[in-house]
Amino acid sequence: MSDINQDLLKERLRCTFDRKELTILIDGGPDKHRDRKEKDAVMLHSKFEGVPEDYLSYVEKFENSIKESVEMFSRVRRLQEQGKTTMNNYREVMANILRSTVVRDGSPMGLHYFMFLPAIINQGTEEQQAQWLDRAWNCNIIGSYAQTELGHGTFIRGLETTATYDADTKEFVLHSPTLSSYKWWPGGLGHVANYCILVAQLYTKGKCHGVHLFIVQIRDEDTHEPLPGIKVGEIGPKLGFNSVNNGFVGFNNVRIPRNQMLMRNSQVLEDGTYVKSKNDKLNYGPMIFVRSVIFGDSVNFLSKAVTIAVRYSAVRRQCPRKSGEPEVQILDYLTQQHKLFISIATCHAMRITANKLWDIFNVVTKELHDGTYKRLSELHALACCLKAVGTSDAASLVERCRLACGGHGYMRSSNLPNICQQISAACTYEGDNTVLLLQTARFLIKTWQQIDSGKLTPTVDYLNTARSKSHPGKWVNSIENIVRAFEIVSMRKISSCVENMENKVASGVTFEDTWNMCSVQLISAAEAHCRVILLSSFYEDIHASSKTVSPELRVVLNQLLDLYTVYWALEKLSDLLQYTSITSEDVQRLQAWYEDTLVALRPNAVGLVDAFDLDDMVLGSTLGSYDGKVYERLMEDALKSPLNSGKINYTFYKYLKPFMEGKL
User: Fold this and answer.
1) Which residues are catalytic?
2) Which residues lie below 8 Å from residue 262, measured CB to CB, with a gap of 6+?
3) Which end of the chain is more exposed for a tag (fewer CB within 10 A), N or C?
């Protein structure tokens, strides 16, 4: 106990609830908690000793990441051999990897697990899965996912890479017709992967059938040399994720066998006949899957950042409130609580919603296998908006956590700059957030146009209720009322978009121009819909779990719900003032409620982040370790700098001294 900072120790002693109870709730129950702890025990490992990563060159960082990735995925393989990890619980595999990784700047083998394997599982036939899955699952081959090109990203239909079927040889001919058609960004493709899932325009019998997926060998399995006709390499330094080995690849009439087109949904017969998929959106399964993963992973980034920031804020003291008194823990300042506590609440709201998204994903996937496609568009729209809003919220709050740590948060050893860079990248990869919100908006517009049919899917069914209460009575400051108010806001924004678009089209404006002219409103409507999903999911889950948790934990969970809901009510006041009966007096009471909730949560702040149960190796932070020895760790890390290996750097004699003596 004496090894723990005394301020942090006192914080833990004043916690009013059982931290382990909350951890078990976060993990999904005792069995899942036990399973997660067992896997953590296997997965967690100390980083390789030597010069800290921040002092390594670009090439050295890549080489170091290969060593660490091989160590990490060797542990995944060990779990597979022990039967604790199978393809049947694939989501848990990825969640464990994302949660427990100590590879600080991303892994070049990540896309193998997060996109290459899922594409084969979701898009491959049984024969193709039998041919490829075992080898991929055991990492006998390493894959990537090559979709984005130099000239096209989010607009998938505009991709230029071609796959032309040759019926005489029963092969596809892969070709990159322009420089802009080179694949650009696939993780691990630069020097690690020897296979990839290629997204290319399918041509057969002289006709283009749009983009389809192909399994393509990039490098020789023994020598790792690029295969003939393939130009492959690494794209260079980025803002973050510089260990991911993002690559480029181009094809010069490269031939692959017919059975390397993934054909669960669409097929090309031996004579070149194209068999169309029952639903075009089935080809987007891997993207829906990975966007769901990204939304869930945003919770990992945010929980790390807020754990670091809250622990540091409990240790850091600054400015006495009164003369002669000791300096105050900065966590006691209401402004600091305002900066940080919303991140704790957001972690819970997003985690709960991510679980709901996965439940819907599993239901829809089962329905697809049964030939039912009714909810596929709903799932696609939900994954799009949650990925967009979730990563945007997380990026904003992670930066807020960094700023809350002052100058020390600017140190790379805090790990906060690295977390900021990684979550920032999530706002653009696998779909730019603006475009994803517009895709959700397209679904919402179609939904509103069908609202009188009475056939709305579950996540938009609230629109019917909201429409019947579009002119609410007197405002009530309650969680339920705020959630219902957000439903009305969403409904009114969607209906307003439809009305504006119909008026423009009626005046002679083309639909395409109308869509562009209304795009800012459409994005706002899509975000409003997403806020409803987040708020209602959080509200419903806390209401349900309150019946099963201890009274002490129930109080804290409801405080987190209050904080999250009232925070967003205050953030979106302009919407509430426009579409509801809220008054200035109601707003004042909301502000007081919010501030009172911050004060009520203050004694449990450290306990709440401890309940995330993040190991020091995962946090990788001088500011956020469990023992709170911030200053000792900062100094220890500083002394590892190569510039501190000697008392005087050679530049003093070569440049500085001659300059100061006027001899340069």
Assistant:
1) 430
2) 119, 120, 123, 124, 125, 128, 197, 212, 213, 214, 215
3) N
